[in-house]
Amino acid sequence: MISIETNIYGQRILVITEVLDVQKSFYYTPMMFDGVFINPQQAQDVNAILRSVNPVTENRMSYKPFFLTRSMKEAVGLRAHMFDAFVDDINSQEVLNTIKDIQRWRDEYQVRDETEPVNNVNTLFLRVIRLYISRNRLDITPQLVEGSSVGYVLPVLEVLHQWSMFHLIEWFTFLQTVQEKGYLRSLRFINLIHLCPKCQHSHLLYMETCPRCGSSSLRYEQVIHHFPCANVSPEHTYNVGGQLICPKCHKPLRHIGIDYDRPASIYICQNCNDTFLTPDTKALCTYCHKLTPVNELNPLYVEELEITPEGIHAFMKDNYSISVTLDFFDNYMAIDKFRNRLWLIASHKMMGSVVESLAVGRIWLENSNQRVVGFPDQMLETACTTFATYKVTASPTIFFVDCVLRKGSAAEQLMQFRRQFDMGINALGTWLMPGMTINGHIVVLDSETNLTTHELMHQVELLPSKPDVTYGYDDVKHDRKEDAADVMAEAEHTAEAAEDRQALDRFQEQLDGELRQINHKPAVIKVISYLRWGLLFLLIVGAISLILAYNFWLK
Question: Is pTM beyond 0.85 here?
Answer without folding.
Answer: no
